[in-house]
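ZP: hey, is the magnesium ion complex queued? I don't see it on the tracker
AM: it wasn't, my bad. submitting now with these inputs:
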Amino acid sequence: MTPNLDLELVGLTKRYGATVAVDAISYHFSAGTYACLLGPSGCGKSSTLRMIAGHESVSDGAITLGGRDISHLPPAKRGTAMMFQNYALFPHLSVRENVAFSLKMQGVDAATRAARADEMLELVAMTALADRLPAQLSGGQQQRAALARALITKPDVLLLDEPLSALDPFLRVRMRAELKKLQRELGITFVHVTHGQDEALALADEIVVMNNAIIEQAGQTRAVFDAPKTAFVARFLGSHNVVSMPEGTLAIRSDAMKVTASQSARLPGTITNIEYQGTHVTLTAAVPGEQEVTALLSDRDFFDNPKDLGEAIGLDWEAGAAHALAG
Ligand code: ADP
Ligand code: MG
């Protein structure tokens, strides 16, 4: 029988003096999930991750893994491993020695260490570079070395703090595909911190949106994207308009906005910006109440019926495309 290795946060709290960085958050990560903690800078993502890893003490609440309370165990005894934002590779050690480092700390003999390190390097396609120093690697290669180093302890949960932020945009997209593939192959839980909504949407089975030390909304990625509960979540995930209408505050996806010339549309608007994006055109319009609304149109829809800056338009949407927001 496979053990249940779900990771659970129960009223988890982190205080730094008077600052409450994480305020009694609770969440259940099913084993084998790719989860993203998403939120703006300072909302408590790294503090949460570091508490799970054991690099930061828990002020209140608990962390369990497979039903075992790991809240106060040393990092190496938790079944978790952490990959840091800047990779934190030892500059004077070769790639192989970096990867083998934690086994050396555990007193594993040299031959076994080297063999296990080589296995991990094969997993991340770094075999040919095993004898190099970190300074002799590209950003993407350093990232793979750091991944191999984190995975050598065979963790049940891999914790990644902004793992792609040091990479250029092209490499970031490539490495995120590799992270996803690796997670699928290993079948372990990944908890990945990011402030990028594209990254979270691309990777996560489950998304945990944090704001001001709390979880604002969490769940299956598409369920959260399709039904943001608050204006914050709708705005932070992007591709949504938040519009105050007489019936209340609504979230309406940009791609659900229809642009018409009709003055009988739900919202009258004046075009303030038109951005050509290849396959799409993003049209921004000022609408009553000093609000702005964005419509994402296919290039075909736009150029079949082109509009100009300053033009008066109507904005409409199908009833099912809008949903009410709280707060
Ligand atoms: P995030 O990773 O989402 O940017 P952090 O968890 O790093 O957020 O920080 C959350 C809050 O806790 C911030 O207000 C930050 O300034 C504060 N904080 C983080 N680390 C410390 C620390 N070691 N000492 C004091 N305050 C901290
Ligand atoms: Mg952080």
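AM: back. The chain has a mean pLDDT of 94.
ZP: great, adding it to the tracker
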